[in-house]
Specification:
Elements lengths: L19 E5 L1 H8 L4 E3 L3 E4 L8 E5 L5 E7 L5 E8 L7 H15 L11 E6 L8 E6 L2 E6 L8 H11 L4 E6 L8 E4 L7
Parallel strand pairs: 1-4, 9-10
Antiparallel strand pairs: 1-3, 2-6, 4-5, 5-6, 7-8, 8-9, 10-11
Helix pairs in contact: 2-3
């Protein structure tokens, strides 16, 4: 059973349910088709509306066919962090769970007794199909580092999924320097609390 989150994450507004349609340059289409996880602001011709960090952006090619879907961030030069490309996909709790479970399973060999380690990178961001999201494990602590504000609206959903996949006593949130300087506790107790 998962303990209550500290502080509660219910105050974080969810992403917009309406998807942002994104039209890109010909070069960007080619780059996305090769599997590149980022779409830069200069590669975008048009968006259906400006949106907020964390809204899902759907990229269409010149023939108006689905190309990719990702986390939109109007505050970053990396305007879209691509989660899935090729064929349409529903980005929901089940999708997040599959991605997190797959990343944890890939790191399972690191936990073998002969490895004698309790510190390693659990989620590698772009390498695990979750661009801009990194999770490091240090004994019973998970450190969740976000490189984009686009991940913040998903914390209430992702933190419980992460704890189910990799139980921990605490989760510490670290944001990229331009987002916030100090780490924050998302789960567990801070030193001196009971």
């Amino acid at each position: 059973m998962i303990k209550a989150l500290f502080p509660p994450l219910t105050h974080i507004p969810p992403p917009n349910q309406k998807r942002i349609a994104v039209r890109v340059t010909k070069t960007a289409e080619q780059i996305i088709r090769t599997g590149h996880p980022w779409l830069f602001d200069g590669s975008i011709h048009e968006v259906s509306f400006e949106g907020r960090p964390g809204d899902l952006g759907v990229v269409f090619d010149r023939k108006r066919k689905f190309l990719a879907i990702g986390l939109y961030d109007p505050l970053s030069p990396i305007r879209l962090r691509i989660l899935h490309q090729g064929s349409p996909a529903k980005i929901d709790g089940e999708w997040w769970e599959v991605q997190i479970q797959a990343a944890v399973a890939r790191r399972a060999p690191l936990t073998a007794p002969e490895k004698q380690t309790n510190g390693y990178r659990l989620i590698y961001g772009e390498g695990d199909g979750l661009p801009g999201l990194v999770v490091d494990k240090y004994a019973e602590t998970l450190v969740l580092k976000l490189y984009s504000a686009a991940w913040i609206p998903y914390l209430p959903e992702l933190v419980p999924l992460l704890l189910e996949a990799q139980p921990a006593e605490r989760i510490v949130l670290r944001l990229r320097r331009h987002l916030q300087a100090e780490p924050d506790f998302l789960y567990g107790l801070q030193d001196g609390q009971t």
